[in-house]
Amino acid sequence: MKLTDVKNLDQEIEVVESGYEFLLAYAAQGRPPHIESDSPTPHARPTLEGMLTAMANVADAFKDGHNEYEQVIAEDIRKASAAIRFVLSQTRMSSELIDNLNASIHLRAVLTDFFLYSEVFRPSSEPEKVSQEPMYKSAI
Predict the structure, then answer these.
(1) Which of 37, 39, 17, 15 is nearest to 29 (CA)?
(2) Comparing 121 with 37, which gets the higher pLDDT?
(3) Whole-model pTM?
(4) What residue spans define the domains of the chain?
């Protein structure tokens, strides 16, 4: 299976990447432990749930693949998902809790896996064309 064969993979990766960015901002807010339903928005729980679903979809797409790196991604997703489920099982959310999740090597591994995997199939820039003109023109 290749990146281009995975239905909606770009969207799933975007959910995780944008979710991580949201969590960084959430962690910076200095929120004390609180029950989200009793507190003003934004809430971390819906973002974490969306990330968990997106990662499960990617892992599911890779589960029967023969590509060794896809298996690494699936394993990293398993570990990061366990960390997210652990946070979701807590009654109270806080900036410190989310900050510690953000620092988790498991979540960071998934993000890095996604960046590397995506880059292989979609380079971020077109190759530069080599100009036939001289680099410097003579003033003479």
Answers:
(1) 39
(2) 37
(3) 0.81
(4) 3-121
d(CA 108, CA 124): 20
> What sign has the CA pseudo-torsion 13, 107, 90, 55?
positive
Asked if 65 and 71 count as a contact pair (C-beta separation under 8 A), the reply is yes
Look up tokens 């960390």; give the residue: 83
Helix (H) or strand (E) holding 119: helix 105-121
Contact 86, 57 (CB under 8 A): no
Q: Among all chains, which residue has been given the structure tokens 């909606």? A: 8
40: tokens are: 């003003």
pLDDT tens, position by position, 110-123: 999 999 988 876 65
Q: How far apart, in whole angstroms, are the C-alpha atoms of residue 134 and residue 90?
A: 64
Query: Coil, strand, or helix at residue 93?
Result: strand
Q: Which residue has the tokens 């959910």?
A: 15
Q: Where are the beta strands (DSSP E) in the chain?
A: none
Do residues 55 and 91 lie in contact, with contact meaning Cβ atoms separated by under 8 Å? Answer: no
- Please state which CATH class domain 3-121 belongs to: mainly alpha
Of all helices (H) and strands (E), which one includes residue 84? helix 68-88
